[in-house]
Amino acid sequence: MLMALHVERRETPAFSDMDNSQKNEPKVKVDRASAKLSLVHIYVAYIGFAIAILCGLLQGLVRGGIMTLPSWLNYYQILTAHGVLLGLVFTTFFIVGFFLSGCARTSGGSLSPMARKLGWIGWYLMTIGTVMATIAILANTSNVLYTFYAPMKASPFFYIGAALLVVGSWFGGYAIFNNYINWRKQNLGKTSPLFQYMAVATMILWQIATLGVAAEVLLQLIPWSLGLVPDVNVLLSRTLFWYFGHPLVYFWLMPAYVCWYVNIPKIIGGKIFSASLARLSFILLILFSIPVGFHHQLMEPGISDKWKLLHVILTLTVVLPSLMTAFSLFAVFETTGRKKGAKGLFGWFKKLPWNDARFFGPMLGMLAFIPAGAGGIINASNQMNAVVHNTIWVTGHFHLTVGTSIALTFFGISYWLIPSLTGRIMTKALHRVAILQAVMWTFGMAIMSGAMHYLGLQGVPRRTDYTTYFDHPEALSWIRPQALMGMGGAVLFFAGVLLVGIIVYLVFYAPKGEEEYPISETQDAEERTPKILERWSLWLGIAAFLIIVAYAYPIYQLIDHSPPGSQPFITW
Amino acid sequence: MHLHRFEKIWLMVGGATLVLFLVVLSVNAYAMGMMPPSHMKMIDPNKVDETAPFDNPGLHETGENEYDLVMSSMVFAFQPNQVEVPVGAKVKFIVTSKDVVHGFQIPKTNVNIMVLPGHISEVTHTFDEPGTYLIICNEYCGSGHQIMAATIIVK
């Protein structure tokens, strides 16, 4: 009897879409070649994740005064590893892998042969770069954190590794572009699939954004770290970094939006609210995420306050696409709930599939984005920034955004992406474990990030080893909340281990079967998408114009009126 | 492109809030002079000790209970690392770096500036309450970053 139940469970995923109106549509499966390409990205992402959470646990415990590191391990070394592996490696690999699979899924199941080739080139470059940078960090030659601010000098291996990671991700983007162009050639006059459109928009943003860090690393830091040029223009290097550093967070966010706009409606048995608005919000994100980097440099000398204010205004404009997204998502939730018979103003809330891990984690992520966004408005405001700049408040902020909203969404994506690509299923029991994981993650993060926000307001610096500043009474009063922060980190670590366990199970041990790759349709099939949204040359032109307005003159000034450059320093 | 009526209202309220917020921000910045510290003066980072005013770091009285505090920062210290001022002192901090990027922050005040080699940062603060104030480096600068601090005693 038990056997029979087990056999039966092998064939049905925990949640089928039988109640959907899309029964007639044949299920599109991602073919083996495209699935393999996507999966190798996901694997590297989670290997990086596993190492990074161990580093995170150690940092939390050290900073909380709960343990000390052995003499052969440096706090700033594991901090560098944690930031690089989560901020750059986990995210970039996951995003490229997710997009490649979705582009295949919306192109009849297969990527174009050229796209597959480009995708593999990108994966090899990114992986080689990651290995190089990781070795450089482990060898204690590059304790420069993931922002690698000059004139601290890392090993050339670190910079070259970082450059390969970025260039590799460009090839991932070329793969997505190639597949999209191919689709449009084969479907003349038709509106492109929303998933592909969003993937293309995200990768366009990424190409534009990474030009800054590529210029910094290739033109400034690599020649300087090799000793070919004696000194470096520090402020220029920081400006180029933050030209990249802010859109980087949108590069993390937009794939989560893709899940929320395209995958989640299908998972909850609803439809996309409006595809045109979704497209418009992505265009606005491209336009308003790049010419804004000075809001990371508000407290710096050498950049005039008027240019800073312009960037602050452009930064805050991104509120608009965020509000559009929030409206669309909750509109889907409400209309779906009402179709299922929900009554009253908020009855639809109960009709949401709370026992489905594909929905539960990303939903917690969406809710976390509300306080996270409010914190972001504080950070970007040119006056309030003086209170929080470089304090651990900022660390608390991005652990809510990328560490909660985006991370929980990526976990939720993994729960259908991996089994649908490996030909396995996410069982009901696994859904329960995954929901427990999401609850633990959110709980740990609430404690850790909450403590960080509180401590930041007291003036506690970020990126700092355990210290009492020679037993200064003020610094001593920070230790208890820091211990609380460390305990939140420990909860997060266990939640992370649980996640890695689920991922390993999904890859190697979950029952064989067919897990659905959820791609939603729009509510109004008749809705025509304005053609102008797909005229990329127009949007690229406006983006270029805004970037020139925001950066051309300041960068010209930074080069023209620069102080004597800085020699390299190794300070660890 | 069709916009739902509720969405129009939602975006108009959101947009109006944004505009109001930006107006408040700009009034603060321009009418009330609360621009972020953006000092434009430069210095040769290799010759800090020979260049005025950093050839003579320390506290210099410039008016009635008004001071310039000239500080150079280096791994992993500020120079000078302890000064005393009377209650009510208005202190202008003039800071630069002799090596890597540092931070300069006095917790529980709005004093929070980046210190970049090649640039001079300035920020002014009035100390109305007596106490021992901590100045800390809040930008990672190397293995001893966590001990980089100084104190201001306000009596």
Number of helices of chain B: 1
Q: Span between N and C termini of chain A?
A: 64 Å
Order of helices and strands of chain B: HEEEEEEEEEE
Through-space gap between termini of chain B: 66 Å
| CATH top-level class of chain A | Mainly Alpha
Biggest chain pair contact, residues each?
A-B, 76 and 68 residues
Under CATH, the homologous superfamily of the largest domain in chain B reads Cupredoxins -  blue copper proteins
Order of helices and strands of chain A: HHHHHHHHHHHHHHHHH
Mean pLDDT of chain B, to the nearest integer, reads 94
CATH architecture of chain A: Up-down Bundle
**Can you identify the CATH class of the largest domain in chain B?**
Mainly Beta
Provide the gyration radius of chain A in Å.
24 Å
Helix content of chain A: 55-70%
Number of helical segments with 4 or more residues of chain A: 17
Pairing-aware structural class of the strands and helices of chain B? alpha+beta
Secondary-structure class of chain A: mainly alpha
Described by the principal axes of the CA atoms, the overall outline of chain A is: globular
Q: Helices, strands, pairings?
A:
The complex is a heterodimer of chains A (572) and B (155).
Chain A: H1 2-11, H2 32-63, H3 75-105, H4 113-138, H5 156-186, H6 194-225, H7 234-267, H8 275-289, H9 305-316, H10 319-339, H11 357-380, H12 385-388, H13 392-422, H14 428-458, H15 473-476, H16 479-509, H17 536-560
Chain B: H1 5-30, E1 58-63, E2 66-74, E3 77-79, E4 82-85, E5 89-97, E6 102-105, E7 112-115, E8 121-127, E9 131-136, E10 149-154
Parallel strand pairs in B: 2-5, 4-10
Antiparallel strand pairs in B: 1-2, 2-3, 5-8, 6-7, 9-10
